[in-house]
Design a protein that fits this description.
Elements: H1 2-6, H2 10-17, H3 21-28, H4 37-47, E1 50-53, E2 64-67
Antiparallel strand pairs: 1-2
Helix pairs in contact: 2-4
C-alpha cells in the first residue's frame, strides 16, 4: 500500500532502499524475510513521507499506512527579500 500510494515501482523502492527487487516482491506477497530487510524498506518509505500507524492509531483502529502532508516550499515572504537573497 505504501509503495502504491507513492506511485513507486518495485524498481523505485529497490533503488531507494537497497533491497533487491526479488526480495521486495516476496515481502509484498506475504513471505517472511530476514529481520534486517524491514527497517530498510520502512526507512525508504518514511523518508518519502509514508507514516506507519500501529494498532489503535488510525481512525478505524487498525494498523496501516498513510501519506503525510506534502511539504511545500512557499519561498520567501516579501519582508524577507533583499538584494542578497535575490535568486
Amino acid at each position: 500500500m505504501a509503495r502504491a500510494g507513492l506511485g513507486w515501482s518495485l524498481e523505485d523502492l529497490a533503488g531507494r532502499s537497497g533491497v533487491p527487487i526479488d526480495l521486495i516482491a516476496h515481502f509484498e506477497n506475504g513471505e517472511a524475510l530476514t529481520p534486517r530487510i524491514d527497517p530498510l524498506l520502512r526507512s525508504a518509505l518514511e523518508g518519502a513521507g509514508v507514516i506507519f500507524e500501529d494498532e489503535g492509531q488510525s481512525v478505524d483502529g487498525g494498523p496501516g499506512v498513510r501519506l503525510g502532508r506534502a511539504q511545500t516550499d512557499e519561498g520567501k515572504r516579501p519582508e524577507e527579500l533583499s538584494s542578497a537573497n535575490d535568486d
